[in-house]
Specification:
The protein is mostly helical. The chain has one domain. It is built from four helices and no strands. The two termini are 18 Å apart.
Length: 84
């Protein structure tokens, strides 16, 4: 029988493998995000600032926020939840 530790290790490997793809997906979402923001009732100045932020800041400064500490935290919490 598979143990929780084995399942957690599998999940952790999958999560770590996704980290680089998460940045690519974020960059690929630019057009969808801008289109969604353009559909809001905000004025042209706000919309221009949003586009500028995407062009100048967002993709280059993307961080998934998923550090080694957070991966370990995910693992601990997953095991605790699945043990209930």
């Amino acid at each position: 029988m598979v143990t929780l530790e084995e399942l957690a290790s599998k999940g952790e490997r999958k999560l770590k493998a996704k980290l680089s793809a998460m940045k690519e997906n974020y960059e690929a979402a630019k057009d969808i995000a801008i289109a969604g923001y353009n559909a809001t009732p905000f004025g042209p100045t706000r919309k221009a600032h949003y586009r500028k932020a995407w062009d100048e800041y967002a993709p280059a400064n993307y961080k998934s926020g998923m550090t080694e500490d957070k991966v370990a935290k995910w693992r601990r919490k997953w095991i605790a939840a699945m043990s209930k």
